[in-house]
Design a protein that fits this description.
The protein has 16 helices and twelve strands. The protein folds into three domains: 5-98; 204-366, Histidine kinase-like ATPase, C-terminal domain (Heat Shock Protein 90, 2-Layer Sandwich), CATH 3.30.565; 371-499, Rossmann fold. With 500 residues, the chain is of the alpha/beta class. 56% of the residues lie in helices and 15% in strands. It has helices at residues 5-14, 23-49, 54-85, 91-94, 100-162, 167-197, 210-227, 248-264, 315-321, 327-337, 368-373, 392-404, 415-424, 441-449, 466-475, 487-499, and strands at 206-209, 231-236, 243-246, 270-280, 284-293, 343-347, 351-361, 383-388, 407-412, 429-433, 457-461, 479-482. The protein is elongated and about 125 Å long. Strand 8 (383-388), helix 12 (392-404) and strand 9 form a beta-alpha-beta unit. The strands form three sheets. Strands 2-4-5-7-6 form a five-stranded mixed beta sheet, with helices on one face. The protein has a five-stranded parallel beta sheet with strand order 9-8-10-11-12, with helices on both faces. Strands 1-3 form a two-stranded antiparallel ribbon.
Length: 500
Amino acid sequence: MDYNRLLKRQIKKYLTEGLDNDQRLSVFMDAVNDSYNAFERDKRLSEHAFEVSEKDYLDIYSRLKDEINIRNQSIQRLKETIRNMEPGAEAEIMQDGDNLLDVVNYLNLQINKRKEAESAMRIAKEEAEKANQAKSEFLSVMSHEIRTPLNAVLGLGQLLLRQNPRPDQVNNMQILKASAENLLTLINDILDFSKINAKKLELDHVPFNIRKTIDDVFQANSIRGKEWNNEMKMTIDEAIPHYIFGDPHRLTQVLNNLLSNAVKFTRDGIVELSLTLEKIDEHKCCILFSISDTGIGIEQEKLEHIFSPFAQASTSITRKFGGTGLGLAITAELLELMQCKINVETTLGKGSRFYFTMEREYVDEGKDHLQQMLSTVQDLNGAAILLVEDTPFNVLFTQQLLEGWNTKVDVAENGAIAVDMMQKKKYDLVLMDLHMPVMDGFTASIKIREFNDQTPIITLTATASEDIKNKLGEVGMQDYVIKPFDIDVLFSKIQRLLKN
């Protein structure tokens, strides 16, 4: 727009570059320009007034007065807009008057301040993202360092329990196993909460034995329940199919959180886990999961907070019973990912009931592949397996485990040695650790695939990251197991790949 010459002079003198793209300022400058033009017209009319008749002069004066009023009204409206946008605007700008220059100067100052604030916010956002990335990396490293020895503790505990220990040793081993599993639960809670916040947690969709899953969760919590002199009950509707599709690990996590809470807050009472079939058709079944106790209960006004992160019903709960305050928050988030909703019924001093319904596809028990899944004989028929692992106690545990499944095991302590051994000997399967000296598991897998694209590779890693799953295909791996791993899960994955 072609501005008035006086306004052009003001713009050149007072406005900084780049502001001409600001839409609000453009609207304002148009209004100012109109005011300048009106003022000059008024001035010309005034000078000409002496040459016209008295009647014409009065008409001109009236129009001039009207235009001045319009100009003043425009300025007042502009100040009112500034006042609404900036309640703390300088007092002199808000005073009565028609000094446009003060208003323009003020707007220019505010625009500069806004730009500085936006720049500071951008820098702060970048710093926050860096801090969040550093936190994620720290959690990943700590997870790996803690899970590595915990894998041996849990694994050797499971092995010892399977090796017919003396009756007086069984209880000690079960306590050792339960304690290690509690420690693993705490680690998983922290890591899962971080993944849920980052929207990086994904669910599996595989067939699994729902009855075995429920029984494992129940037995793991029964030991602690009996320590508190609780009666532990489990009921499963006989009409529920044996095998359903879903994520057994996450369902186990949900049920373990709810059942361990029930046990933790109940003394000399009853804790019950029950499954009821609500409906079933040719493809799907709907199951009601319920965990009830006769424990301390929850105050009604505290119910809305129990699913918040790091929150418990009261601070005394943390001191008396322990816990991170993450279990129920993660449970609610996991169930939401499963298209389920957690419900609560509770009476203070009398107990609580947590329940949810889950609709899932189920497996036709007449199909051949189900009979394969029901096989309980863990025999891998003399398969030759290369174990690539640098931690001695993990080598000891995993080698014993594999040899117990009728396999022939060779060990390589790093990726470079594994590549060399693969070139010299034929193996049926490779179990590959990731973090090792000399050469890591990813690099070793890439090099192996340069001359061998047949032998399946399963990575055994203590790094619980979704990035691992995404990177498997890139380096030629077929599957992965997170340490500490469930023995039956590892066996089923090895068996499946050997058959394929």
